[in-house]
Model the fold of this input.
Amino acid sequence: MMQAEMGPDTKNSQACAESVIQKYDFAFSGVCDNCDKSIPVDLSEMDVEATQSVDHKIWGDSISLWRRATIGVPLNGFFFGFLSGLLGGTGYGFFLGYLGLDPYVLAAAGSIMKLPEVLLLPLGYLNDKVPIRGYRRKSYIIISWIISFVAFLVMCTHPLPDPYFCRGADGSYDYTVPPCNPGAHDQKSYYILPMAMISLGFNMGSVANEGLLLEYSQLEPKEKRGTIKAEMTMVTTAGQLAAALFIGCFMNGKEYLGTFDWSLDFNHMMLIAMILVLVQIPLTMFFVYEPQQRQIPAASVTTSWQLVKSSAFVAVLMFAFGTHMMVGISTTAAPLVRSQWAGVKVLQQQLYGMVSMVMTVLAVWFLKAYFLQTSWRKIFYSSCVAAVLLDAAPAFLTVFGVVRNQYFYLGEEILAALPIAALKLVSGLLLIEMSEPGREGLCFGLLGTVYNASAPFASAISNQIFGSFKPSLSDVANYVQDDPSFRKTVAWSYVVTYGTTMAGFALIRLIPAQKEEAQKRKKEWGSHWLYAVLALGFPSICLLYATSVLVMANVDSVSCLEIVGGQGC
Done:
């Protein structure tokens, strides 16, 4: 029902995986040319970029993004949130309802669509070290919008197949009869691959923007540091709020698990998204400030290696990978519990999502005002425990048939707004403190790559664990029959989900308690090449294994294998 996310955007339904952090916060910052280039620099200790200071003329007396030269930044953030929300909001009704994908196939497809997220490290290195036409950040943001435009164009022009399930007299799907269009499953690749392209584009832009945001955040006074990050979180959330309202009003047809007799088609939604992406290109060109930069020498590779083998930074990387993997192990029953037993419809889901987003914005402001100096460990632990407890109550009451009401089931999303906001803010503050001047994009990219490499692995493990449950958690017929024995099977799958989530917090000591400890670790903790091997090698092996399993789950001839979550061929 919820997912945990920490780290860089974005993204719906299972365990603590989406609850933690939505990584796609569009941001902006810039680097200035006020530096004494005659100062000798040892590249093994300091990147050439670190000698550059920020052009304070653009800010005046205070650091703010709400100026004409930088207004494109919050606009980018708003529309990025809108487009991310549009994709996430339409996926529930389109893939689960219209195309009728099995939950384990849906989980595998979702992970494949997010695979470009593991490219944050090379993307971060590129925008830190390889400026295009003199711009380290802006050029990559523009390229990211162009990639997204092409992908949206492909989806909006591809002919939409007929729905997978047969429809009854009232327009709703009839799950008791064989599907009317089994070939709908074969069309999923025409949407999964373009969405993977969009993920690549969004991540390229996210890395560039986050690098700029980190630079400016580090200029804030210590007592106010994190204010810009919080503002961008609120702007992005506002975009997601607008997307939820738009989907609830215009894509709430019964063919998309909604309640209306009419609806915009999925193709129409992608056309609207394509137009918005096209608008972003000139906005970025003319209203995002960044002074031109020279190309950085190749010798900066040495300083990048220094960062990768830093024990203080590697500890944060291992925490991100380990906890995200544990909380990402989520029952494959969640989508069908939501749609079949709780009866959640698109309009209600989007309306509750909107209220939850408003609460999240208020919670971020509240935490920024009163808890900016509180221990990150305490906030992280208490927030995730609260999120799990709030998720478990409606889940178990729905599974055992005590209360099966979509409004009750969705109420958890509103109650969980405070812990979710806390997790978002803590992750952003942690990244700000651990970043190195001149290597902000690299820090963001490295953390995002290692963090996101755990998501496909968790998805693959989830499919394998919960695919062994009998009767099948992915068979809609079992939810229609609703036998007491099957309810117990589903309940045990949730117990496993919450158990693995809580087990992940054995790693809580890997992160610093607050800003002072973070800076102390950076100064006092040593470095070793073995740390770099651990930080990069283990996630890489897990990613290769997960990719193989997830691709197999989306190939019809082998998707039935038990190793990928099927019931056997």
